[in-house]
Design a protein that fits this description.
There is one protein chain. This protein has about 120 residues and is an alpha+beta fold. It has a single domain (about 25-105), classed as YlxR-like (Hypothetical Cytosolic Protein, Chain: A), CATH 3.30.1230. Helices cover about 20% and strands about 30% of the residues. It has three helices and seven strands. It has helices at about 70-80, 85-90, 95-105, and strands at about 5-10, 15-20, 25, 35, 40-45, 55, 65-70. The strands form three sheets. The protein has a three-stranded antiparallel sheet. A hairpin with a 2-residue loop joins strand 1 and strand 2. The protein is globular. This is Nucleic-acid-binding protein. InterPro entries: YlxR (IPR037465), YlxR-like_sf (IPR035931), YlxR_dom (IPR007393). Pfam families: YlxR. It comes from Corynebacterium deserti GIMN1.010.
Length: about 120
């Protein structure tokens, strides 16, 4: 598979400096579309509460993650398809309330921050 890169251009007083970083493509568990990871929201199962799904916008939480298009419609579709249990390998019923709350409160173009 061919590696795709995107150039981060850093402006300096002497000119333009380019740094190549790989673009990571991920598949949304709801829509099955491949997108850049910066366009998707990572979700993980809570290590303390089995079956509770948590949003991970900074992509730092431990555990197996799944990627979701950051919209309520995609969340509903993933729930309907039971995609969370499959993607996160969870055998118990899942609670996506935290993800739904996060999406409702943070709706907008910069919902998937890499801070």
């Amino acid at each position: 598979m061919q590696q795709i890169y995107h150039d981060d251009a850093l402006t300096a007083s002497s000119g333009l400096i380019s740094r190549r970083t790989p673009i990571r493509l991920r598949t949304c568990i709801a829509t099955r579309e491949r997108k850049h990871d910066s366009q998707l929201l990572r979700v993980v199962e809570s290590p303390d509460n089995p079956g509770v799904i948590l949003p991970d916008p900074k992509r730092r939480k431990p555990g197996r993650g799944a990627w979701l298009t950051p919209s309520i419609a995609a969340l509903d579709l993933a729930e309907q398809r039971r995609a969370f249990g499959r993607a996160l390998r969870v055998s118990t019923p899942v609670d996506t309330g935290h993800v739904r709350t996060y999406l409702a409160e943070n709706a907008g173009p910069d919902i998937c921050k890499e801070d």
